[in-house]
Design brief:
Elements (H helix, E strand, L loop, with lengths): L4 H11 L3 E7 L5 E7 H10 L1 E4 L13 E6 L5 E2 L9 E9 L10 H13 L3 E14 L21 H15 L4 E6 L5 E6 L2 E2 H21 L3 E3 L13 E9 L2 E2 L12 H21 L5 H4 L9 E2 L1 E2 L7 E2 L13 E3 L8 H17 L17 H6 L3 E2 L4 H9 L2 H7 L1 H20 L3 H7 L4
Parallel strand pairs: 1-6, 15-16
Antiparallel strand pairs: 1-2, 3-4, 4-6, 5-6, 7-9, 7-10, 7-11, 7-12, 8-9, 12-13, 12-17, 14-18, 16-17
Helix pairs in contact: 3-8, 4-5, 6-8, 6-10, 8-11, 10-12, 11-12
Length: about 450
C-alpha cells in the first residue's frame, strides 16, 4: 500500500530519524543522492528537492542544469541500523524538470515509461535477479578472504558471517531474500532476491548493492560488483529471471504447450535472442564486463537457449515442473555492474518486440556449446555476443531499438561515455605489457 506524507512524517518522528536520503541513479547505474534534515523533508515531499543536474553523468548540460528530485513515497524505508551515529531513512526519487515534467534522461523514468506499454493491458513484468559479488580485504587489490567454492558453507567462515548479516539487513528493510550461498570462485557470493515487479526490483537491486558494501565496510572488508576481478576464476553475473503476469496468472505458462511455455513466452524469448547483440552494451557496460564474457568460466557467450543447459544464453529453469508461477525465462549474460533500470527496460523492450512481431523461437540447444567447434556452431547458426566493449558500442550504435528506448539525447550521451572509456583502456599501457615486453623488446 502506498504511504502518505502524513504516515511518513509520523514514522520519521516516532523513530527519531534526523536525516532522510533522497536517492536516484545516473546513466551508468551509480547510486546518487542527497541527505535532508527533518525540517526540510516535508517541503521536499510536496515540491521536490532541487539540485544541479549538470554534475550527474548522462543528465543535463551546464546551461540547463536545474532539476528536481521528487520522492516516491512508496519507496520510503527507515534503516534499522545507525549510519554513523544517526538514524537514517531513505526514498528513491523520480527526476523532473523545474516545470514538473518527467526528465527523459532519468533511468528510473525510462523503465517506468517502458512498463506503461504493458500496464495498460493489465500486465506486470516481474524480474528476479541473482546478483553475485566478491569480498576482498580492501579496495586496493583483489585479495581474497576465503578459499571456498560453490555452495561451501562454514559457520565460522568470515564470508558466511558477512553474508548472513547482509541477508538480515535486507530483510530488515523489507527486501525478501530467497536464498544465499557461496559461489564458484574464492571469496565470491550470491544472494537471490524474491521476484517482484521490475521497477521495485530495480530499486531493490540498488539498495542490495549499497547494503552489501555497507555491511562489508562495517566489518573491515570490501565488497565489489566488478564483473571480473580475479584472473583465471569465474566472474560475477546477474542472471535475470523474467515473467509477465496478469493479476495472479502467469502469461508465460501453458500446460499444453512444448516445455510448458506459452506462445507469448516463446515469442518473448525469441525477441531477447534476436536483439541481445544490440543491447549487450546496456547489460554489460564496462571494459571489464568482457573479461567475464569468455568461454570456459560459466559465463554465456553464445546466443542460444536451452532448458538444462547452463552454457546457453537464455535458460528455462525446470525446478518446479508444472508449477504455473515458477515458469519463467532466465537471461544469463547481464552483470551486476549494469544499471538495473536500463537493463530491465532493454530486456522488456526486446521481448515485447518478439511478442508483437511473433518472432519464431529456434530449437533449443542442449549440448555443451563450449565444447563445440566453430564449424559445429556455424552449422547450428549459433552466433556470439560482442567480445569487447568496442564491439558492443558498434552494435548498439546501429540499434534503433536501443535508440528508441533511451531517446536521442541519452543514447548519444551513453555512447559518448562508453567510447571515452574504450579509448582510455585502448591507450593504457598495462602491467601485463610491461612484464611481457619490457625486457624482450
Amino acid at each position: 500500500m502506498a504511504k502518505t506524507k502524513e504516515d511518513i512524517l509520523k514514522q520519521i518522528d516516532e523513530a527519531g530519524v534526523r536525516y532522510i536520503r533522497l536517492c536516484f541513479t545516473d546513466v551508468l547505474g551509480r547510486l546518487k543522492g542527497l541527505a535532508l534534515t527533518r525540517p526540510e523533508i516535508e517541503e521536499a515531499i510536496d515540491s521536490g528537492q532541487g539540485f544541479d543536474g549538470s554534475s550527474i553523468e548522462g543528465f543535463v548540460r551546464i546551461e540547463e542544469s536545474d532539476l528536481m528530485a521528487v520522492p516516491d513515497l512508496r519507496s520510503f524505508r527507515i534503516f534499522p541500523w545507525r549510519i554513523g551515529d544517526e538514524k537514517v531513512a531513505m526514498m528513491f526519487c523520480d527526476i523532473q524538470t523545474p516545470e514538473g515534467k518527467p526528465y527523459d534522461r532519468d533511468p528510473r523514468y525510462i523503465l517506468r515509461k517502458t512498463l506503461k506499454k504493458i500496464e495498460s493491458k493489465g500486465w506486470t513484468f516481474n524480474t528476479g535477479p541473482e546478483i553475485e559479488y566478491f569480498y576482498f580485504k580492501d579496495d586496493h587489490k583483489p585479495e581474497i578472504i576465503d578459499k571456498g567454492g560453490y555452495f561451501d558453507y562454514g559457520t565460522v567462515d568470515i564470508s558466511t558471517k558477512l553474508r548472513k548479516k547482509t541477508v538480515r539487513a535486507l530483510e530488515d528493510i523489507g527486501i525478501m531474500v530467497e536464498c544465499s550461498h557461496h559461489e564458484v570462485a574464492p571469496s565470491q557470493q550470491e544472494i537471490d532476491l524474491k521476484y517482484r515487479d521490475a521497477l521495485v526490483m530495480a530499486d531493490f537491486a540498488q539498495l542490495y548493492k549499497f547494503i552489501v558494501k555497507e555491511k562489508a565496510q562495517e566489518n573491515g572488508y570490501y565488497a565489489t560488483f566488478m564483473p571480473k576481478p580475479l584472473f583465471g576464476e569465474n566472474g560475477s553475473g546477474m542472471h535475470c529471471h523474467m515473467s509477465i503476469f496478469e493479476n495472479s496468472h502467469n502469461l508465460f505458462f501453458d500446460s499444453d504447450a512444448p516445455y510448458q511455455l506459452s506462445a507469448m513466452a516463446r515469442h518473448f524469448m525469441a525477441g531477447i535472442l534476436k536483439h541481445i547483440h544490440e543491447f549487450t552494451l546496456i547489460t554489460n557496460q564496462w571494459v571489464n564486463s568482457y573479461k567475464r564474457l569468455v568461454a570456459g568460466y560459466e559465463a554465456p557467450v553464445y546466443i542460444s537457449w536451452g532448458r538444462r543447459n547452463r552454457s546457453s544464453l537464455v535458460r528455462v529453469p525446470m525446478y518446479r515442473v508444472g508449477k504455473e508461477k515458477a515458469t519463467r525465462i532466465e537471461l544469463r549474460s547481464p552483470d551486476p555492474a549494469c544499471n538495473p533500470y536500463l537493463a530491465f527496460a532493454a530486456m522488456l523492450t526486446a521481448g515485447l518486440k518478439g511478442v508483437e512481431g511473433k518472432y519464431e523461437l529456434p530449437d533449443p540447444i542442449e549440448q555443451n556449446i563450449f565444447d563445440m567447434t566453430p564449424s559445429e556452431r556455424e552449422k547450428l547458426n549459433i552466433k556470439s555476443l560482442p567480445g569487447t566493449l568496442e564491439e558492443a558500442i558498434n552494435a548498439t550504435e546501429k540499434s534503433e531499438l536501443v535508440r528508441g528506448l533511451l531517446g536521442d539525447k541519452m543514447f548519444a550521451k551513453f555512447l559518448e561515455n562508453k567510447r571515452i572509456e574504450w579509448d582510455q583502456y585502448r591507450t593504457c599501457v598495462t602491467e601485463y605489457e610491461i612484464d611481457k615486453y619490457m625486457s624482450m623488446l
